[in-house]
Structure formats: structure tokens, C-alpha cells
Amino acid sequence: MFHFTTLPPLSLYIHIPWCVRKCPYCDFNSHQIRGDIPENDYVAALLADLEQDLPRVWGRIVRSIFIGGGTPSVLSPEAIYNLLSGIRARLSVTADAEITLEANPGTVDSARFQGFREAGINRLSLGIQSFNDTALQRLGRIHGRIEAILTSEAALQAGFNNINLDLMFGLPTQTVDAALEDLRTAIAFQPSHLSWYQLTIEPNTRFYHQPPRLPDDDLVWEIQTAGQTYLAEQGYPQYEISAYAKPGYWCQHNLNYWKFGDYLGIGAGAHGKISDAALGTITRLSKQPHPHAYLQSAHSTAVIANCTTLTVEQVSLEFMMNALRLFEGFTNQELTENTGLSMARIEKPVLEACARGWLVKEFLPDSTEKEFLAVQRIRATDTGMRFLNDVLDLFV
User: Which residue pairs from 176-182 have beta carbons closer than 8 angstroms and sit at least 24 positions apart in sequence?
Assistant: First the structure.
């Protein structure tokens, strides 16, 4: 079905499902801590889960690891060390692999950060959300402005030079000035990366059933454009819908997602996507979502909650959904290598989107024959990026 000349890059995602408190806007698979975290049992379960996935990726090298949640920083540095050591004993991981840990203010200090760094973490993603006390209270966060500042300082003091600060905009009653003040405070720490994204109301959250009053669309657009301009002026050009970074500090793990690379997913509710060149298939898997069920099943095949073989139509749409989030778009080679499909598969909707001014095709400077298959890169225009859902409708 899919014809791979080479397999996509491979990453590893690890899900830690516990949080100190469930935020009212969060629809991730996270569970409030009640009592002690069974971290030793959970690390053992993660490694058992990984061992069952190994036959799917024999001989392949992991290029990035992302420990997300939940709040992974509730685990001890010793647990993280044991986890990463167990992974390296079972998988080939590149020496320069990006290894990210998500951490939230209120769960870490300088000593803990130092322990995570010694355990093998080389990139932190700090869930700040805002530096405004009122905004943080309305978001149900366990930290305030002071904790957010102290956590950012502690990460730097621990020696991390690759730090992402996670911020939201479009918050209840937020103004343009308040949003820019959040960004100014963040930039003062000179992080290598910023994730700055709009608060959205998702089903199965407290905000969905008790929605707060959010800024209207015009104000949100004003906030977004002002923030984009400010971040670019400060040396943080936007490279993806919600990602801004100093040159050389794009998030390699997320980049693999956006380019439709492969990834193993271990942990409660973790998702994975694996290509098989011999069978010509792309399979998506998910693990048991509840921590208790996961711990009970991790040492058996029952840990897999769902396993689906993707169709050509699904892959075409998913590739476009991810790749067009990137401001640089994608190349012929990336499409073919990461999906096993030819450019001809998406020719018709791409040409239609180009005709509407939503996509643009770029050629090599010395290209003289501008046929469709000679295209080197396809990316969304500014209009296409703003109305990306309309663009993707063409690929459904």
C-alpha cells in the first residue's frame, strides 16, 4: 500500500499521567495525584511496555525523546535516571538526541532541576501559561507569578541552555497589553524556544461545561499579530503555528511529528505511529489510558488499547494537517520518505489550493521546467495559514 524507499525518523514519547491538580481547560490524559505516586512500578511498566514495542522498530535509531504529561516533574530525578538508563539499554539512541522533560512551577526547584539534568535531560519545557496572577487563578494553575519566575530562574541556574516556555493567549479578560507583558517577562529569561498558543475550549473539560468569558475573535487576532511582531523583533521567528525559537533551537521532537515521522508511545494513554517497509503499512497504536489499568496490563499485550492500520486517504490528510502547520511547509522528498506516497497523490487538491492563494509552490532557482513533480517545496501562504481548516477540507 505504501512504498517506502527509506523509513521516517523515529522518536519516543513517554507519558506521565499524574498532576497535582487537573486544570479546567485541560483535555489531556491526566489524573490528580491521590496519595503516593507508584513511580518505581510505573518505570518498570514503561520499560515492559517498551519491550513489547521493540519488534516493531528493530534496528532503528531514536533521535529524540519527549517525557510529557500530566506533570512529569512530579517524578523524582532518580526515577527519570532509571527510566532513561532502561531505555538506552533497550534502544539505540543517538548521542546528541534531544531529550525533553515537561515541568510545572510548583513541582520543581534548583536541586530537582539539577537532578534531572544529571539524569540525562537536556531540554526543559516549562508550563508557565502566564506570568499574571489573575490569569493563572482563572486557569486553575497551582502556581502564581512569583513561582513562575523562580522556576524559570531555577532552570537556568541548573545549567539548562535549551528551555521552552509554554504560554497561552486569548485568556479570560486578557488585553493586548497583558498578553505582550507575558511575552516580555518570558523573553527576559532568554529561553531558546517559546510555545505561545491560543486557549481553546475543549470537550470533556470543566471550561466546556462552565465556559469563561474569552476575548472576541477580533481581539484575539489583534493579540496574536502583536505578539508575532514582538517575538520576531526579539529574535524569535515563528516556524510553526504555535512555535517560536531562536535560530537552531526548533523542537526536534515536535518537528518529527509535524513532518509525519514515526514515534513509539509508551505510558498510560500514549499514542504511537510506526511504518513497516516490508508490509507497506502505517500503524497507529494507543495504550491503556487509566494509570491503574495501564499498570495492570503493561507486562502483557493487553496494554494496547487500540491498533489501527491507516488508509492512503487517512495518511494523505494527516500528513497535510501536520506539515502545513510549519511555515516552511514540506518537500517532495519528505512526503515520499515519510508517507510512502508520491506527490501525484495530492496533486489535484494542492493545485486547487494554489489557485485560491492558500498554498504556494517553490522551485529550485535553476529550474526551467516547472512541472508539478519538479516542485521542491509546498507551503501555506499567510492567508492559507490563517484559514488552514479550509485548506485541509480540500484533502478530505
Answer: 176/219, 176/222, 176/223, 176/226, 178/132, 178/135, 179/223, 179/226, 179/227, 180/226, 180/227, 180/230, 181/131, 181/132, 182/130, 182/131, 182/132
